[in-house]
Amino acid sequence: MSEYPKVGVGVVVRKDGKLLMGLRKSKHAHNTWGYPGGHLEHGESWEACARREVAEECGLEISAPQLGFVTNDIFADGKHYITLLMVADHVAGDPQVLEPDKTINWQWVEWDKAPEPLMLTIENARRAGFNPFKETT
């Protein structure tokens, strides 16, 4: 296990008042619902990472991602992530499972009716008052 936290980027993709969420199949946060996302690569901007991860995982094109929230997540398995939640709007494409080893399915869900259990990152952001449909100051 790493001595330092890793940087994760989660992408809150909005469309018609709903968010894209997927049921995770990978070992990390297995069987929880989460956003598309992954690790920030060396030299990569947060925005580029968000666009890349959404395209790789579900084949969607998104608007210019903006930083929505940051969480400090220490998972039950001991992994520690600083997670940047980027918010973007859907531009084109239908969600596809392009990494079937990581995600079972994608679906559009209402913010206040999200399926459970949620990934720790989402739980932490919600507890802190994050709402991707409200402007932050």
Overview of the structural elements:
The chain has helices at 46-58, 120-127, and strands spanning 6-15, 18-24, 33-34, 37-39, 61-62, 66-74, 80-92, 103-109. The chain is globular, with a radius of gyration of 14 Å. The chain is built from 2 helices and 8 strands; from the N terminus they run ββββαββββα. Strands 1, 2, 3, 4, 5, 6, 7 and 8 form an 8-stranded mixed sheet that branches. The protein starts with 5 loop residues before the first strand and ends in a 10-residue tail after the last helix. By secondary structure, it is α+β, with helices and mostly antiparallel strands. Helices cover 15% and strands 39% of the residues. The chain has one domain: Nucleoside Triphosphate Pyrophosphohydrolase, CATH 3.90.79.
CATH topology: Nucleoside Triphosphate Pyrophosphohydrolase
Largest sheet, strands/sense/barrel: 8 strands, mixed
Instruction: Give the C-level CATH assignment.
Output: Alpha Beta
CATH architecture: Alpha-Beta Complex
Q: Which structural class best describes the helix and strand composition?
A: alpha+beta
Number of strands: 8
Helix content: 10-25%
Mean pLDDT: 95
Q: How many separate helices?
A: 2
Q: How many distinct domains?
A: 1
Stretches where pLDDT is under 50 for at least 5 consecutive residues are: none
Q: What does the overall shape look like?
A: globular
Strand content: 35-45%
Order of helices and strands: EEEEHEEEEH
- Rg is 14 Å
The end-to-end span amounts to 36 Å
CATH superfamily caption: Nucleoside Triphosphate Pyrophosphohydrolase
